[in-house]
Each structure stands twice: as structure tokens, then as C-alpha cells.
Amino acid sequence: MNAFLATYARHIGSWLPEMLQACIGTLKLTGASFLVAVAFGLAIALMRTSRSRPVRGAAILYIEALRGTPALVVLFLVYFGLGKLEISWLTFSSFTAAALGLGLVGGALLGEIFRSGIEALHQGQMEAALSVGMTPVTAMMYIILPQALRIVLPPVANYAIGLLKDTSICSIIAAPELMLRAKDLASSSFLPMHLFVLAALLYFVMSYPLSLVVRYMEARLGHGR
After folding, report:
1. Whole-angstrom distance, CA of residue 161 vs CA of residue 112
2. Which of 46, 119, 152, 207 is most exposed by smallest CB count within 10 Å?
3. CA-to-CA dists, residue 46 to 21, 29, 42, 171, angstroms
4. Cα dist. 40→31, 100, 171, 199 in Å?
């Protein structure tokens, strides 16, 4: 154990600045992926609650396809597969491909979360909004979605915590994030255990504050109900 810690004492001064810089990349990737997932998830939730059977069917197909496909496979399809088509606007950088791939997978998960929040509200609220002259779109925007947000906020925040940790698989396509930097340093220093332990600690430091926020939100929203 002393030898293990002594290795940190010798190398931490050079490792830590690079790892902290990589943490910024991880947070940026998490934020971008989360925004993509929310956009797709909201669209899928609205499609799932549509009265049109083909629209609902398309949403169900998307959810089942993305939930049944490993995220790593989706990343490969976006980064390598679309690039093979040789279409300029379908050729992405590793960061963009990672954010889009994780966002597509997350959209299927959030779609079901958002749908459950919308359907948890009494149907009479939509009927009341329509009866006073609101269109279905404005009723959804101003009446239904704000209330559904309160319901889905804790599970969405939990998804964000999981997403932060899932960004580690994006090192496979060389996305600039923490795990990629840890692997690079491990290959040059031949000290993989030390680097991956340090990476695990940094992931914990980034995710633990989010978990505290989730607990706070759950307590406040539970008290409100």
C-alpha cells in the first residue's frame, strides 16, 4: 500500500492537471448529450401520446430499437457508419458523434419518462383547456408540460447522473473526455491501476454533488405532494 501511494506522490503533479482538464471535456459531453436526449425524449413523448396510430407506432419503434441496442453500437454507427456514406453533413467529429449517439439512446429512455409524467395528469385538464378555447398545442405547452416537469424532474436528474458516467464509453471513439485521457496516461506511464483509480475518484467527485441535488429535489417535491 505504501508503494502504491508513493507512486501517486511522484506522479500526481503531472497527472492531475491533465485529468482535471479532461473532466471539463466530460462535463461538456454530458451537457451536450443531455440536451440532445431531452429534445428527442420530448418529441418521442409527444408522439407516444398522439391520437395518430402511425405516429405512436413510429415512437414505439424508436424506443424499442434504441433501448434494445447497446450504446456502444450506436456510437459506432454514428461515428463510423454514417462517415462511410461520404456525406459531408453526416460526418461528425468524435465529440459530436458521442453527444449525438448518447443523446439518441437517452431520448428513448427520457421519452418514456416524459410520457409517464404526461399521462400521470388527469385527462380532464386537457379537456378543460380545450373547452376555454386553447388549442391542443398551447394546452400542452402551458398546462400539461409544466405540471409534468414537476413529476419527471427526479428521474430525469437520475438519468443525468448515469449519463455522466456513461460518457466513459466514448473513449472508444476518441471523444475528448476523462477516460480517454486516463487510458493515454496509462499507456505512457505503464501504471493503469493508478490512473483508473484516480479516474474513478474524479467521476465520483463530479457525480456526487448531482446525487445530492437529486435527493434534495425528491424530498422537496415529495413534501409538496
Report:
1. 18
2. 119
3. 38, 26, 6, 33
4. 14, 10, 24, 30
